[in-house]
Amino acid sequence: MTGEDEDIKKPKTLCGIRHVQTIMMFFALVIAYGMRVNMSMAIVVMTDNTLENSFDWSMQTQSVILSSFFWGYIILQIPAGEMAAKYGGMILVTTAIAINAVVSLTVPFAAYYGGWQLVCACRVVQGLAQGFVVPSIYNLIGKWTPVDEKSRTGAMINSGSQLGNAIQLVISGFIADAWGWEAIFYVNGAIGAVWVVVYCVVGSDSPQKSKLISAEERLYIQTSLGQLGEPKKFKTPWMAIWTSVPFISLIVLHCSQNWGYWTLMTEMPSYMKKVLGVDIKANGVMSALPYLAVYILSFPFGYMCDYLPKKKYLSVTATRKLSNSIGFFGPAIALIGLSYVPAGNVTLAVVLLTIVVGLNVGHMTGLMLVHLDMAPNYVGTLLGITNMAANIISIIAPLVAGVVLKDETDPDEWRKVFYIASAVYVIGNTFYLIFGTSERQKWNEPSEETDNGTQVKSADKIV
């Protein structure tokens, strides 16, 4: 049973408990991604030798510190998805933000008393904890979001990551100027602690377990998702998952998105400074513009991707593929255009960069929601698999760029980097257009064994 099968009466309230969960998940990503990038801003001040108590860390040491977060982040992606399915997303995402908040508060002490090695250890711990965040959040989306609200809810929650980046880039400089670099970590930690307290009060693992939700809203959500009765936990069908061609195409798609996106995020500041003469890192607002573009565009994209299937203009599969195509082919074209911007043309460079990054919003209402479409029973596990693979790619892509770039001031060598990223965008999305789907997979509803040994189909039970 889905929202397309029968007329489901929506609750009259404009802000239900499901919307409260959406807001809390949105801020969870704002906080998590803010903590993820705060070191990249703080380390500039921490190593400024014109200031007192600065750290004499080489560029190599700084690179190790900045990359250490991802050492931990990659490791727990798949286990996180399995644990979210077993224990529920709420306890995991709450624990993850709590750990990040505590560690953030301790980073200044680690730097002063343990040096860069202890700072790295702190970042590894934060990365390990954040490995639970995205799979857990998608587990919660799968339980809390009615079918006809899935795209805009997913887009809004995902946009929190971009807004978290943007806010951190804009305010870190002001915080450091006013109170010192240490305050960047104290503010992040304090905000994370407040979120944990609020979420423990208003959050819940599912509509069935919420003490705040009305009976009307609970019935609406459960009916839409086919969740009537207690949700069941199923054994993960690993063989079916790893032999599913649509899922393999989703892995390819997620990896290609991360290749293009992280090539932009890691290499673009150097390109704009060395080739175009624009020091984008020196301007927090300019740095934040691309992230703000993704955040703003997430709202029309979310509504569009709910509206088209609801009105039956396009199927869910066609809608996801349209969104992906905008989010992959668009940046591929704009990236090539960016590589030919004349030196010194700041306005055109920033506009194209904002377009390139902004159009990545298509993956939020495309590939990120396909996991939910294909197998809501195992969404955390699926997302853990694709996110782990994609984040390995996010490490490899900048290394490939470093091999290609012999001279960072040569526009021709930079064009090679951009052409490679564009090709990956195009190839990845084309592969998905051919083999991908948003149709519910048969292995999402595995057979259960009854007491007498007979097999029954667990159709329409979504957890």
Describe the structure.
The protein has 463 residues and is an all-alpha fold. It folds into two domains: 1-231, Growth Hormone, Chain: A (Up-down Bundle), CATH 1.20.1250; 234-463, Growth Hormone, Chain: A. Helix content is 71%, strand content 1%. It has 16 helices and two strands. A two-stranded antiparallel ribbon has the order 1-2. A hairpin with a 5-residue loop joins strand 1 and strand 2 (455-457). Helix 12 packs antiparallel against helix 14 (367-374) and helix 14 runs antiparallel to helix 15 (379-404). The longest helix has 42 residues, at 89-130. The protein is globular and about 60 Å long.
Précis, in short:
This protein has 463 residues and is an all-alpha fold.
Query: First CA to last CA: what distance?
Result: 14 Å
Task: Give the CATH class of the largest domain.
Answer: Mainly Alpha
Strand order of the largest sheet: 1-2
Which strand-content bin applies to the residues? under 5%
The CATH topology of the largest domain, please? Answer: Growth Hormone, Chain: A
Q: What letter string, H or E per element, gives the SSE order?
A: HHHHHHHHHHHHHHHHEE
CATH homologous superfamily classification of the largest domain: MFS general substrate transporter like domains
Membrane topology: Multi-pass membrane protein
Transmembrane segments: 20-45, 57-76, 88-111, 183-202, 240-262, 282-305, 326-343, 349-370, 382-405, 417-435
Family: Belongs to the major facilitator superfamily. Sodium/anion cotransporter family.
Keywords: Ion transport, Membrane, Sodium, Sodium transport, Symport, Transmembrane, Transmembrane helix, Transport
